[in-house]
Amino acid sequence: MLETSALACERGGLRLFSDVNLTLAPGGLLRVRGANGSGKTTLLRTLAGLTRPAAGEVRWRGNPIGDDYRREMLFLGHAAAVKDELTVLENLEFSSRFSCLEISESKIKSALESLGIARLADLPARYLSQGQRKRAALARLALSAGVPLWLLDEPFAALDDEGIAQLRKICAAHLAGGGMLVLTSHQDVEIACAAAWSVELRG
Amino acid sequence: MLETSALACERGGLRLFSDVNLTLAPGGLLRVRGANGSGKTTLLRTLAGLTRPAAGEVRWRGNPIGDDYRREMLFLGHAAAVKDELTVLENLEFSSRFSCLEISESKIKSALESLGIARLADLPARYLSQGQRKRAALARLALSAGVPLWLLDEPFAALDDEGIAQLRKICAAHLAGGGMLVLTSHQDVEIACAAAWSVELRG
Amino acid sequence: MTSRLFQFAAPQAFFPIAGKLIPWFAVLAGVLALAGLYVAFFIAPTDHQQGEAYRIIFIHVPAAWVSMFLYLVMAGWAGLGLALNTRLSGMMASAIAPTGAMFTFLALWSGALWGKPTWGTYWVWDARLTSELVLLFLYLGFMALKAAIPDPVRADRAGAILALLGVVNVPIIYFSVQWWNTLHQGASVSLTRAPSMAATMLLGMLLMAFAAWMYSFATAFSRVRAIILERERDAEWVRLQRAAA
Amino acid sequence: MHSFVSVLRRELQIALRRKGDALNVLVFFIVVASLFPFGVGPEANQLRAMAAGVAWIAALLAAVLSLPRLFAADHADGTLEQMLVAPQPLALVVLAKITGHWLLTGLPLALAAPLIGLQYGLPADALGLLIVSLLIGTPVLSFLGAAGAALTLGVRGGGALLALLILPLFVPVLVFGAGAVTAGLTGINPSAHLSLLGAILAVSSLIGPWAACAALRVALD
Amino acid sequence: MHSFVSVLRRELQIALRRKGDALNVLVFFIVVASLFPFGVGPEANQLRAMAAGVAWIAALLAAVLSLPRLFAADHADGTLEQMLVAPQPLALVVLAKITGHWLLTGLPLALAAPLIGLQYGLPADALGLLIVSLLIGTPVLSFLGAAGAALTLGVRGGGALLALLILPLFVPVLVFGAGAVTAGLTGINPSAHLSLLGAILAVSSLIGPWAACAALRVALD
Ligand code: HEM
Ligand SMILES: Nc1ncnc2c1ncn2[C@@H]1O[C@H](COP(=O)(O)OP(=O)(O)OP(=O)(O)O)[C@@H](O)[C@H]1O
Ligand SMILES: Nc1ncnc2c1ncn2[C@@H]1O[C@H](COP(=O)(O)OP(=O)(O)OP(=O)(O)O)[C@@H](O)[C@H]1O
Ligand SMILES: [Mg+2]
Ligand SMILES: [Mg+2]
Question: Does C193 touch chain B (CB under 8 A)?
Fold first, then answer.
């Protein structure tokens, strides 16, 4: 469903990677591997349509990516997109409403619970620890089961063991439900899935 | 040498931890463990003298911490203190000169090499990937062998396997030379040392 | 240990004392104000130059005095809190600021009203008027800064720094009429010289000044009680207090 | 539409949390306007002649001061990235942010203008004109300012560069806005000025959001 | 001392990298000064009388615009934290940052003042006075401004709050700075104004850095 053909990216005139050909089908997990600076983040941003490739193309359901794609894709970069001024609850409400997810009070609450931050719902995000902030950003995933494609950049960073386990569960459920998942991670976290690929970028 | 007595910290009126009594002697490694939000970062900042404890005291060589302490301590928080506008080399030069480290061109170069970023020396830090940026911040450690106490908050985050190995080597050398090291980390990275303690914080 | 005692005992100890004192200050303020107003409007003679308009002096001068004095007191509390880390200090400073701002505003307002008949204009950009206006902005800035920082401890300390910074303005207000020759009148009450005004006028002004002073005590104390209750709402003694009430 | 509402609501919510941010803009406006007599001298006639210009310059500077923050915070914390990958049309989001900016800076300024007018001794009908001209003119500042803010996003030292980019664009607004009031004061019909201001508003409401969207995509490439 | 030099050097280095940040302040200064005739009307006599005030207000606003960035970037990227835990006295660091700020905003403005003076038809000796008053007065803006910037650090909506806190403190500087030039123009000896400005400079050079250091420690607690 998600395909790239001969994808290449440049940064500052330097070719980071080229000729990346990927295919990802429903239920599939794609791990992007590579050393620091090999271009994992750049690849993910290109898949999300934020960065324009130097060559090649990203296709979704056979078409070049466009507005439809954005409705079926969820991208979480390493910046958490969590507003200091708003509480954890308000942040989640806004981000999910903004991505046109269907929400209800009980859904929101169980999303926060599934990442272990229900207790912090009314704390302004300014006061969160790094890991708590990451969890607040990830809570959106628990509401996004209906979004077919997830692109996650280093989702396990800053999480403690309990947080990693919670996120693994959410990812596994997404894949089991026919979702697709692309992720980068320096930690090798097992995720149960039907089909796993991995792409290795090298400088 | 580093001691705390009945240390307690509050955030927003809530007691994060109390009655923390630590002693760290030369060559010793102290791991601060705990779930997300348990107060590891707060404890490290308190040890560094940035946050004022709600009760108790931090002592260095038997005295309350002051100017002397600052000369013998190195703190790296999770913000990398790397300036986007300056190159990797200029950043390292400034930070080490500012902490009164003795530097020379060859020392700086070998510090960059020991973290595998010698190639990036003249790249403005704006363009670094997350892991590269972390390495640029950590490069100062390779020049700080003479500084007895290191306080590192999540030093292994964002590093790839090669980076972790390099940092382990630097830390082990520091400890072998009689240095002291306090670190927080969600990844369990082995570090060779004479004596290791760990303190577990719980909410 | 003593500093710890200092730190934790103070608000709790101060709360009931302030509660007992407030009615006394309020009553004193009322009595003094009535006496002052009586002197001002029935005893003090009509001014041969300004006629009756000069009677604004009985509002204007006390308000101006108290506005400056309260700033010094506020900065003193704030500085104490910064130096000794006592918790009550920051609360006292917060409690004084609105009253100080009110008197500053009153001095500006009454001065402006007085300016129209005497100088022919409500406002001139002269040194004393300007520095008094700066005083108002310092009070407002102090309150705005404190309101902008949610953590009360940090807010206290940041506010204290600003308050101390602004202390420089007070001597400028007071001596500005000597440093720059301006429209505004110089000091006519001084410790070193005999007062140059009629004794009854001086009496009226002093009565009003004391009334303002007592009023400040009353309002600041009642405000500080509210602040204490809010900040210490989780403390044991406040819970007991609430249970008792 | 619903994304417009939710973004706008969030903007206002955040502003409220910052305890009196909007109030600060107001007080700033008043402070700046009070500064002028210091620099220029306190003659009443001269002051009356300057009143409209001063109010307008103060409004303009308040806009310049607040604009760097329009996208910067959202850029730094990744929200902007999310807005670009979201299914919502970016134009709606930008429009909501512009509306929020105007509600928090332009509108309060227009409503506070009488204070300055009184301070400078402006007669009542000129006061009315001042408010009307500010009501028509300040949205222009938000529209064009948004484009400038997007263009200088991520460019360090953007604040001064932004001022440099947009102040010249603001000049016509200032000229016609203050001009309308001066015209009214001297008995000339101010409607020519006001309709020109309206035309500028119409144009800028089209090109401002468009330019801002395009610039945001470039900034995040 | 050596930390003073290395911080100052870094400040200037970064400013240079930002390609013409200092130049931006200058151009901003000139643009603001050129705006006034639009708002106020172009009568030559009135303009000459206003020249000093306008130059001073422009200097003041340039300072207000640049001040929010004085510590913000160092705060966000962790540099400030490093400065607090470093063996160097914090006061030296703050002094270096203040010096850098003045070299990058105050000094260029003082040197560019003749441009405005000429534009407004100021005679030569008044021009000289304008430059001297700016040279004495602009460091005050940096000293007091640094304190304000440190106090509002990390407080969201800090830009407007900062302006609110420091503009009233800048007023005396403006009064005496512009006053010196006006005095010179009208044949009064301006030395009283200038010596007052000097006194303000002396006081602010003591309390400004002190307050900034204290406020930085609070902000990072
Ligand atoms: C808004 C305008 C005004 C402001 C801000 C203002 C401010 C002050 C201040 C701060 C003081 C106390 C300083 C001291 O005791 O030395 C004061 C005292 C005084 N003011 Fe004003 N004033 C204003 C207008 C006027 C006007 C229009 C008059 C009368 C013509 C006036 C007459 C006096 C007198 C007689 C004193 C007492 C001086 C003394 O005995 O020490 N003021 N004013
Ligand atoms: N202007 C430039 N000039 C040279 N190299 C650049 C420029 N901009 C970016 N780069 C390089 O492009 C790469 C960007 O990589 P990216 O952020 O995608 O890495 P990553 O694989 O996500 O790394 P990490 O594991 O550290 O997150 C880095 O190696 C960076 O040095
Ligand atoms: N104003 C406040 N009100 C309530 N809780 C607060 C406030 N400020 C901070 N906290 C809490 O204090 C804790 C700070 O923890 P700290 O950052 O030290 O955690 P940490 O152990 O480093 O976590 P992580 O593993 O996520 O980095 C968090 O739990 C946070 O929610
Ligand atoms: Mg990356
Ligand atoms: Mg932490």
Answer: no
